[in-house]
Amino acid sequence: MKKSRSALIAIAAAAALALTGCSSQNAAPASDSDAKGDASSFTDVSLIVPADPGGGWDQTGRSMSKVLTDGDIVGSAAVSNVGGAGGTVGLAQLANQKDPATLMVMGLVMVGAIETNSSNVRLEDTTPIARLTDEPLVVVVPENSKYDTLEDLVEDIADRGQEITVTGGSAGGADHILAGLLLEEAGVSGTDIPSKLNYTPNSGGGEAVSLLVGNKVAAGISGVGEFLQYIEDGSMRALAVSSAEPVDSLPEVPTITDGGYDVVLTNWRGVVAPGGISDADRDELERIVTEMHESEAWTSELKTKGWTDAFLAGDEFDAFLEENIAEVTGTLENIGLI
Questions:
Q1: Torsion angle of alpha carbons 226, 227, 228, 232, nearest 10°?
Q2: More confident: 284 or 21
């Protein structure tokens, strides 16, 4: 028997801790006002994507680079991929970054990965800049799968446990959390979920796609944008989406709640900068990202990728991160993932 319990999470991390000694070749020559943190200007920025190519973070970073440069918001916005350990490898690189004109893509996935990987560097050690997008997840199976409904899949995992393999993003991330919540809703106790759930994590969306299309796993979970083209071409079948309402790009696919499990979970993404940068440098990065967000080109990217505009900056983003880092940690503990 399935129990009914709402789980609404929009998660993650960070409030800046002061580090010292940051400087940038991108910054304009310091004036008296600059030295006091009253003004700053960047002609170029660097974008760190803490994942391998092909996933949602990579798509976000490359969309940002395109909009920033095509719109002449900055002269260049080079993207570098630093995959591994749910983004914590890239997070460690950001911690050593001396150029304040640096933005790292991050989000809910990184919050859980920090806990499951016992990362020494945390999001609290960065400078929050902005939340950008929110995206539902989708549960999919290979085209020839025996599972016709979400209930078919979840009940089989609850019965057969490790015999059924589910793939998705990093351990402790949104995809992993959703799988755990579904089993909890199916009546599996939190302490039993780790032994029941055979979850194969990946550091990039392309790896999960290969496993699914190659029939190496029973099911997959990821952002709608990452699996959409494979659902549309028939390589995968979508069983349910994790939003409260059906999504525009998959109007015929039921929600998880419609499928009998009272779970709503969406995956947000945003950007942070190195810790300890000056107030002026932070203000300049917020200005750059805000100008990008207000552009027609970014609105077009949101529509193309199926992302929801979830923009927050300044004190509002700080508060969001601080409040929800505790929530995701509690959820991971409740469903036995940490």
A1: 150
A2: 284
